[in-house]
Design brief:
Layout: H1 3-13, E1 25-27, E2 30-32, E3 36-38, E4 60-62, E5 79-82, E6 85-88, H2 97-108, E7 114-119, H3 124-135, E8 142-146, H4 163-176, E9 182-186, H5 193-202, E10 207-210, E11 214-216, E12 219-220, E13 225-226, E14 233-236, H6 241-254, E15 259-261, H7 268-276, E16 281-284, H8 287-290, H9 294-308, H10 320-325
Parallel strand pairs: 3-4, 3-16, 4-7, 7-8, 8-9, 9-10, 10-15, 15-16
Antiparallel strand pairs: 1-2, 5-6, 6-14, 11-14, 12-13
Helix pairs in contact: 3-4, 4-5, 5-6
Bound molecules: flavin mononucleotide.
Flavin mononucleotide binds near residues 41, 146, 185, 263 and 286.
């Protein structure tokens, strides 16, 4: 029997009792209405989706990456479809943290959902400056550090690929982020994600988001040019799900810190698989391009699956795979 078939059997065996399904989850000190969030870079600043999606129903959403100054981003084309996935090279275009606080946050604050600010930089000081500006603003539930950026001062190596550099940036961010939880979004481009996860945990991360996109490329052999405006991009979508699922499991075996899993989630089964290898919540990215309501649709589907199974919390699902296979 596959892991998913096992899970369905467990779900169906659950004892019936009265009461409503409780989809709420705790990520450290932060309680979310449900375990489904929209992922950074695929949901704008949230506002762009507000006429299509009921933001108040989401577990939350993660903003586009925010930098200390506005960034124009990469030349087009920025997106390119691949079999079972998508390549992107957006180049972290964003309005900059101060414009986000002045223009977007006042409108966002009216929604009753957890807004997580995704933060990036090219030096430790960059990250700290962005967090300092956000600390003075109301209306955020937490921060997510994108550590897949090259550390320009440190020779261009990604923060997320080296445990020492990662520790440094997470510890500095932790010291600055006194008001809110700090999530660290790991890069999948590592040989041992357990070591990286331990470094982030020891430096004070409240949760680990696993994972970002996979560096990849697509070329047109007739012209000899990239199909993107940049030579390479990041691969996302269903093509990456099996790889990231393993990364979540490897991370779960190495740390106690809660994990938010993401990579290729499109169906309720995908959500259940991530939870069963140890994620406490998930994010939905590329699926929102095909269906902007993807996250809301998954919340509805998850509620139905649990109701049908007469199951009222996620306790039976989470870590199920780990329990059987470790
Ligand atoms: C167009 C696009 C832009 C993205 N921008 C960001 C970003 O600014 N910061 C970040 O941490 N991740 C960014 N990501 C990565 C996603 O949040 C997510 O980690 C990745 O796409 C894998 O999930 P998925 O397969 O569900 O899309 C971006 C992804 C896409 C497709």
């Amino acid at each position: 029997m596959s892991g998913l078939e096992c899970l369905h059997v467990i779900l169906l065996r659950e004892v019936s009792s009265a009461g409503a399904v409780d989809l709420s989850v705790k990520i450290g000190a932060l309680r979310l209405r449900n375990p489904i969030l929209a992922a950074s870079g695929t949901f704008g600043y949230g506002l762009e989706f507000a006429h299509l999606v009921d933001l108040n129903r989401l577990g939350g959403f993660v903003t586009k990456g925010l930098s200390k100054e506005s960034m124009e981003g990469a030349p087009g084309p920025r997106l390119y479809p691949t079999p079972s996935g998508m390549l992107n090279a957006v180049g972290l275009q964003n309005v900059g943290v101060r414009a986000f606080v002045a223009e977007k946050l006042p409108v966002l604050r009216k929604f009753d959902t957890a807004i997580i600010a995704n933060v990036f930089g090219y030096s430790v000081e960059d990250y700290i400056e962005v967090i300092r500006v956000l600390e003075d603003a109301d209306g955020l539930a937490g921060y997510e550090l994108n550590v897949s950026c090259p550390n320009v001062k440190g020779g261009g190596m990604q923060f997320g690929c080296d445990p020492i550099m990662l520790s440094e940036v997470v510890a500095a961010a932790r010291k600055t982020a006194v008001k809110r939880p700090l999530w660290v979004k790991l890069s999948p481009l590592v040989t041992n994600i357990g070591l990286i996860a331990q470094a982030a945990e020891e430096a004070g991360a409240d949760a680990l988001t696993v994972a970002n996109t996979y560096p990849a490329m697509a070329i047109d052999y007739r012209t000899g040019k990239s199909c993107l405006g940049s030579p390479t991009g990041g691969l996302s979508g269903s093509a990456i799900k099996p790889i990231t699922l393993r990364l979540v499991w490897e991370t779960r075996k190495s740390v106690k810190t809660p994990i938010i899993g993401l990579g290729g989630i499109e169906t309720v089964e995908d959500v259940l698989e991530y939870l069963s290898v140890g994620a406490s919540a998930v994010q939905v990215g590329t699926a929102s391009f095909a269906d902007p309501r993807a996250s809301e649709r998954l919340i509805e589907a998850l509620t139905k699956v649990l109701e049908r199974a007469k199951m009222f919390t996620f306790n039976e699902i989470r870590d199920r795979f780990r329990a059987e296979n470790s």
